[in-house]
């Protein structure tokens, strides 16, 4: 039997930080009796097995209504499908209605969730070892992992209470150039960032697009949570505001429909001219990378999602209003439980931010919140969470934890925060006691 050493494998495979995704998803399996705030799993109380066949049939009807011949429908669902997807036109219609993003179906690529969309976009845009990815920090662990797999250097741009400061992005881009690198693209989640829950204000969005033009940056806009804002608080996407072709838009049906479909999409409407003079969208050009990563996305998954979109007249925002109410109820329950168990003026050394939506918030604690502490919390106190060090690109977050509340009922949230309070009380502090900051509007 051949024995391998780590030195023979790609550094991304042996890098301990690359375990973040697996650790977050498997924590609940390792500690089945613990209430889990460690992941951002969507609410699953609205799933019905009958819907799988219903929405598949609904998509088949949708194709028949469009005049697609029966033999072609059978081939589309049973054979390998087009590399860039079956439901490009459905997604384009949805984006036009929901987000004001007006692109042709040819500008849409259907992917295996956000992760493949990120890998395809990065592979296409980054052409030299000098190319550097700028990213909001803290950031979703998937973007760091995708960059690491492709040997793309990544530089964090720390966010504030209102997300990224566009001037900080400009400064980071100029610093990369001064060091001999080429800042190529910027990654961010403008709406309810994972893990911090921040929302980028409208003026900052417009200014960020100006900075992207001035600094010659592409913007990778990741928007898994934008549908779940409070009524009247929906923000326009960067893509809908973009008039210069700077934004590539990455979406997913994991949160709005169900994660088991493993479907997302990449919107890249920038024009690319090849050596023969043929002009195609960037999404069409990137199909070479998509073909080599996965050949194509599951046609059956696309049929289910296509049927879901057709059933709801391609108005995903309206279709997810009840789901949005569930997430907002859980956010409010988390904030209320924190206020009860860590009252203002108490000698607990705990503070938190107050997002207006999304799946997460961040708690500051008076001790090092690492994986060892999380395991003690799960094992001895029956509650798990995610260390914020997993999300920081600059070594920050040592005394912060992310709480994901999306898949816990309000009563479980209250019990989980009570358990967390007992764990925090039982954990020795590492600094002298001091009065906690005000929780309302607190930044982390």
How would you portray this structure in words?
The chain has 444 residues and is of the alpha/beta class. It folds into two domains: 11-40 and 321-426, Aspartate Aminotransferase, domain 1; 52-316, Type I PLP-dependent aspartate aminotransferase-like (Major domain) (Aspartate Aminotransferase, domain 2, 3-Layer(aba) Sandwich). Helix content is 41%, strand content 14%. The chain has 17 helices and 15 strands. The strands form four sheets. A seven-stranded mixed sheet has the order 2-8-7-6-5-3-4, sandwiched between helices. A four-stranded antiparallel sheet has the order 11-12-15-14, with no helix packed on it. A two-stranded parallel ribbon has the order 1-13. It is globular and about 70 Å long. The termini are far apart.
Instruction: Find the structural class using helix and strand composition.
Output: alpha/beta
Enumerate how many helices there are, as a single number.
17
Task: Write down the overall mean pLDDT.
Answer: 91
Q: Give unreliable regions as ranges.
A: 433-444
| Highest-level CATH class of the largest domain | Alpha Beta
CATH domain fold name of the largest domain: Aspartate Aminotransferase, domain 2
By DSSP, the count of extended strands is 15
Strand order of the largest sheet: 2-8-7-6-5-3-4
Number of domains: 2
Main beta sheet: 7 strands, mixed
* Outline: globular
Radius of gyration: 22 Å
């Amino acid at each position: 039997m051949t024995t391998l050493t780590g030195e023979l494998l790609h550094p991304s495979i042996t890098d301990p930080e690359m375990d973040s995704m697996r650790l977050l998803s498997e924590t609940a399996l390792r500690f089945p009796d613990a209430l889990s705030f460690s992941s951002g799993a969507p609410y699953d109380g609205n799933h019905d097995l009958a819907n799988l066949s219903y929405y598949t049939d609904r998509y088949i009807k949708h194709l028949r209504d469009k005049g697609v011949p029966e033999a072609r429908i059978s081939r589309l669902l049973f054979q390998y499908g087009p590399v860039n997807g079956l439901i490009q036109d459905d997604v384009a219609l949805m984006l036009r209605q929901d987000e004001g993003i007006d692109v042709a179906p040819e500008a849409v690529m259907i992917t295996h969730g956000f992760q493949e969309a990120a890998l395809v976009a990065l592979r296409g845009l980054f052409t030299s070892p000098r190319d550097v990815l700028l990213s909001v920090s803290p950031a979703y662990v998937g973007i760091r992992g995708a960059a690491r797999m492709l040997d793309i250097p990544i530089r964090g741009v720390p966010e504030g209470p209102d997300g990224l400061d566009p001037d900080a992005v400009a400064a980071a881009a100029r610093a990369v150039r001064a060091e001999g690198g080429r800042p190529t693209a910027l990654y961010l989640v403008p709406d309810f960032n994972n893990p911090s829950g921040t929302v980028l204000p409208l003026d900052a969005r417009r200014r960020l697009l100006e900075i992207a033009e001035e600094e010659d940056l592409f913007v990778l806009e990741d928007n898994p949570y934008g549908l779940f804002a409070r009524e009247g608080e929906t923000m326009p996407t960067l893509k809908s505001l973009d008039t210069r072709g700077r934004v590539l838009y990455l979406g997913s049906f994991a949160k709005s429909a169900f994660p088991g479909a493993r479907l997302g999409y990449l919107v890249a409407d920038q024009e690319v001219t090849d050596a023969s003079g043929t002009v195609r969208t960037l999404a069409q050009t990137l199909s070479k990378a998509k073909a080599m990563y996965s050949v194509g996305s599951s046609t059956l998954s696309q049929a289910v999602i296509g049927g879901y979109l057709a059933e709801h007249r391609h108005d995903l925002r309206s279709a997810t209003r009840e789901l949005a109410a569930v997430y907002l109820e859980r956010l409010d329950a988390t904030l209320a439980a924190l206020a009860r168990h860590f009252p203002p003026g108490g000698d607990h050394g705990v503070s938190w931010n107050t997002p207006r939506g999304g799946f997460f918030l961040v708690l500051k604690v008076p001790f090092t919140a690492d994986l060892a502490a999380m395991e003690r919390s799960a094992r001895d106190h029956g509650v798990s969470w995610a260390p914020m060090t997993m999300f920081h690109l600059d070594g920050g977050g040592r005394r912060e934890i992310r709480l994901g509340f999306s898949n816990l009922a309000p009563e479980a949230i209250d019990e989980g925060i009570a358990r967390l309070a007992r764990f925090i009380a039982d954990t020795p502090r590492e600094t002298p006691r001091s009065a906690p900051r005000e929780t309302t509007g607190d930044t982390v």
